[in-house]
Write a structure and sequence with these properties.
Elements: E1 3-6, H1 18-29, H2 37-48, H3 54-66, E2 69-71, H4 72-89, H5 93-104, E3 108-116, H6 117-127, E4 131-135, E5 137-140, E6 143-148, H7 156-168, E7 176-180, H8 186-194, E8 198-202, H9 206-215, E9 218-220
Parallel strand pairs: 1-3, 1-7, 3-4, 7-8, 8-9
Antiparallel strand pairs: 2-6, 5-6
Helix pairs in contact: 1-3, 2-3, 4-6, 7-8
């Protein structure tokens, strides 16, 4: 085994990180934007009704709570502070222990998540994870735009992005160990299995636990995740 890839929300963290990030940003940078919570609630309802995509929901949430453009220095300072909060309050101890064990094995550690890359990188750095595969945002010079810079890193798209990363790093065909809590990551679990690596269902949802039992995948329980219909990634 040479590569360990981790999902983030509810795999390493107890709860989702996107809505808490938006609230954190607004409280820190523009408290008046908290008045726009009802508009975000409307967008969440639209997403739940499948009237808008998750990618579009992320763009709307960003536009409401962060504005159209944010300077890089300001953003990185807030992301670093948010990462400190996540590490202090929202991480499974079992996940930290597994990351440390994989590192001790000499594994290359990767975080692959649908969450936004601009704050995921800050969290990954504090976990000691150098490689990140996440939902990219658009940058205009030194300013982050509210539009995404690519596809939402979820489901089949996550597998495509993981495979592209493996190709870029000259690691295609290497055994992969993959950890996730959700059945939406089935394509990446199957990639890990096909590589001769290992699929690990961590804190699995009901559907993933059933699939893992059927496929003979290892199951680990690091704690009880906080489930949210609106943050299914």
């Amino acid at each position: 085994m040479t590569i360990s890839i981790y999902d983030m929300d509810r795999t390493i963290t107890r709860s989702g990180t996107w809505t808490p990030w938006l609230k954190f940003w607004a409280r820190r940078e523009a408290p008046w934007r908290l008045l726009l919570v009802p508009l975000l609630a409307g967008a969440l309802i639209g997403y739940a009704a499948r009237l808008i995509t998750r990618a579009r929901l992320k763009e709307i949430g960003h536009r409401l709570f962060m504005g159209r453009r944010v300077g890089r220095t300001r953003l990185l300072a807030a992301a670093d502070a948010y990462a400190d909060k996540v590490i202090a309050t929202n991480i499974f101890a079992g996940a930290l222990a597994q990351i440390a064990a994989d590192r001790a094995e000499g594994q290359r550690l990767v975080l692959a998540t649908a969450s936004n890359e601009y704050y995921v990188r800050a969290i990954a750095a504090k976990l000691g994870i150098d490689d990140v595969i996440a939902t990219a945002s658009r940058w205009d010079d030194d300013h982050l735009h509210h539009r995404l810079g690519g596809d939402n890193c979820y489901g089949d798209i996550k597998r495509v992005l993981v495979e592209a990363w493996l190709e870029r790093e000259a690691l295609a065909g290497e055994p992969v160990r993959f950890y996730s809590d959700h059945v939406s990551d089935r394509p990446v679990f199957e990639l890990a299995e096909a590589s001769g690596g290992e699929a690990v269902a961590a804190n699995p949802s009901k559907a993933l636990r059933q699939l893992a039992q059927e496929r003979g995948w290892r199951i680990v329980d690091w704690g009880q995740p906080a489930r949210s219909f609106f943050e299914r990634a």
